[in-house]
Amino acid sequence: MALNRNWVPMGSKIVRGQGDRHGGDGAEADSSGGPMPGRELEVDWPTLLVEAGDSETLAELRNNMKWWFSASDNQVKIVLLAKFDRVQDHIILEKWIEAPAPSQPGASTLIPDCAQVITITRDPGITNTDPLQFDHTSYIVSSSGALRLEFDHLFLRQPAAKGEGDIIISIQDLQAYTVNFWR
To answer: Which residue ranges does the record annotate as region Disordered (predicted)?
Structure first.
């Protein structure tokens, strides 16, 4: 979409809670990014965060996600969780956004909402010694399909130019991601 000048990767950004300049609770994302202009300064919160866990449990990753939304005072818009399970040869991806609390229609209270879950599993017939273990077609992506990252959440504006729109990470790209991780 030719937006490389409008996006700043923030890497494994370390941040502190809202209004906390001298210590206190903080966190470090595994990867993050945000739009330029708007979120390019060191003190700015990213709009997209990735929390990945091999030894961390999915529950621990979800606690991290809740912290990011809460501490940023709704400035973080998407948190992607990636849970790696080497024993069962699968990866669970969860996309979290904030949505209005269902018990309070019309209220401005936002709560974390798991908007998409994708499970990527190695074909049960493929072993660790199989030459196809690093072939992307040896991995099955759950029926929820491609990963969608909403443009307005990432760039804090509606798509304006021709070709701008949600970022779609295809099933083939998810399979390639999985192969690269297991390698």
So the answer is: 14-38
